[in-house]
UniProtKB/TrEMBL annotation:
Subcellular location: Membrane
Yip1 domain boundaries: 13-179
Statement: the UniProt record of this protein carries the keyword Disulfide bond: no
Organism of origin: Paralabilibaculum antarcticum
Name of the protein described by the UniProt record: YIP1 family protein
Position of the signal peptide: none
Lineage of the species this protein comes from: Bacteria, Pseudomonadati, Bacteroidota, Bacteroidia, Marinilabiliales
Pfam families the UniProt entry points to: Yip1
Domain of life, source organism: Bacteria
Claim: Transmembrane is one of the keywords in the record: yes
Main location: membrane
Transmembrane segments: 39-64, 76-98, 110-129, 135-155, 167-194
Keywords linked to the UniProt accession: Membrane, Transmembrane, Transmembrane helix
Length: 197
């Protein structure tokens, strides 16, 4: 069950005061299923629904992409699967990499780290309703990486001398996973006929 008041308070804390958020969040125990359904799912629905509206109903105008149901569905599925799989795969990699940097990060904690870090990107997904404004999502993406950076040491407990290398490797993984998922999911959707027409 989604607690809307809790969700809004937590999102506000992560966006407005990420340092304080990580102080509060880093030691919280989460149930993976509950976190996925009560925090990640509602936020992922923002870019998913906005993508369908923007690309399926509004479009970008005659010079670019006109709206079509098929393209809207394509973009919505891409947003939804990309977000969910992106969090899980990135978190799994961070979890597995931990031993190489002489620390231990449980999978739920890695999911928590990536999930909270993605918060600004998912909120900025509202811009997909007007596809020409979707570029503003890049600003939110940069802020997401900043939030990931702030939460990295509190969640991973990595030693001072290892934190830079672990963070840089994890950052590359998060970006690579996002790009690869977009390419793979996009290609599959095009292959099954969800295209611009």
């Amino acid at each position: 069950m989604i607690n809307i008041e809790y969700l809004i308070d937590r999102v506000k804390l992560v966006i407005v005061n990420p340092k304080a958020a990580w102080e509060k969040i880093s030691n919280e125990e989460i149930q993976l299923k509950d976190f996925l359904t009560s925090y990640i799912l509602p936020l992922v629905l923002i870019p998913t629904i906005a993508s369908f509206i923007g690309y399926g109903l509004i479009g970008m105008g005659s010079y670019f992409q006109v709206a079509s149901f098929s393209w809207g569905l394509h973009q919505a599925i891409l947003a939804f699967l990309g977000a969910f799989l992106g969090v899980l795969i990135s978190a799994f990699c961070i979890h597995k990499l931990a031993a190489s940097f002489h620390t231990h990060v449980s999978l739920p904690n890695a999911v928590k780290l990536v999930g909270y870090a993605y918060t600004p990107s998912w909120l900025a997904g509202v811009f997909y309703m007007v596809p020409s404004l979707s570029i503003l999502g890049l600003v939110a993406g940069i802020y997401s990486l900043y939030i990931l950076y702030l939460g990295f040491v509190p969640v991973t407990n990595v030693a001072e001398d290892k934190k830079t290398n672990y963070f840089v490797v994890s950052l590359i993984v998060v970006i690579a996973v996002s790009v690869l998922l977009s390419l793979v999911i996009g290609a599959v959707l095009l292959a099954i006929g969800l295209n611009t027409y």
